[in-house]
């Protein structure tokens, strides 16, 4: 099913210059601002949402960190968020995937272990399952029961993936020839208040997944190249750096052999350069396309999600949505701000997104609204379209 077309395109040359000034206002716990292209809601009970996952059918789940610390989840039904639910035993949740209706798995940092896996059934979190010796960043599921999480060892020595069936930890694999911070997390992200997170991988079967990241840890703006890793049963089949990229921040697959990734070019923090969309065939990059459409640019690309073979949606950390045609050479179809994202409905300041996911009825982008006085998030934000 094709979602609403993104039609409202800014005419300015650069879409990503953020003003951190704004006027705060008194609003309810969940505020919303409607437009023809979607609905933006700010959730004050959350500090930020790092990821969102949607099963093919049923409610989506957004995960993040609560306004006063600790991991939180928010179920989203038909684009409408439910109550914020705290998850005891967690410092924050950075990844989520939903392999079947009414069941999701979330990953995050535990209060007693570096990482935990939290089963979520019908929007309610179960008891966190400890994962000793590793930090987990993000996960994807390739069947109704089989999921794979990216991470690194807790001694920061190795990049790893963890295989789980339902919420049972099956095995941890070291990903050879990959830097410990390749999939982001604490080696490559600036401190974020107790939540490790990174690019969501894409799994095309119970045993086959595509992972993206960077050839060198990115914290401190040390730029290597974007990285694509194809794993089968936890074993590296292909490992490729991507020329013309500094890091890849999301990937989604439209079929077993065809995926689309997004990310940033070299020097993106020095000059305002457009992000990149990468066409991936059989685990290898074949096209690198800038996210530019006429005079409109999109930078700071974060998450990406593809709806079968029709359309992919990428989101940015300054509130833009980019629609992409995934077949053949990827094509940028539109660049537009989420309705209300430039002046969020809570603080009157911009909204940024870290992830996006879709089910059979709608898509949800997840992130947060910036504090008007500081360059950091102040409240969780969800955009349904």
Tell me what you see in this structure.
The protein is globular, with a radius of gyration of 18 Å. With 385 residues, the protein is mainly β. A five-stranded antiparallel β-sheet has the order 1-2-33-32-31, with no helix packed on it. The chain has a single domain (30-384), classed as 7 Propeller (Methylamine Dehydrogenase, Chain H), CATH 2.130.10. It contains no helices and 33 strands.
Question: Key terms for this structure?
Answer:
single chain; mainly beta; Methylamine Dehydrogenase, Chain H; 385 residues; 33 strands
CATH architecture: 7 Propeller
CATH domain class: Mainly Beta
The CATH topology assignment is Methylamine Dehydrogenase, Chain H
The beta-strand count equals 33
> Helical segment tally?
0
| Spatial order of strands in the largest sheet | 1-2-33-32-31
CATH superfamily: YVTN repeat-like/Quinoprotein amine dehydrogenase
**What is the general shape?**
globular
Q: How many structural domains can be distinguished in the coordinates?
A: 1
Ranges with pLDDT <50 over ≥5 residues? 1-36
Mean pLDDT: 84
Radius of gyration: 18 Å
What is the strand content?
over 45%
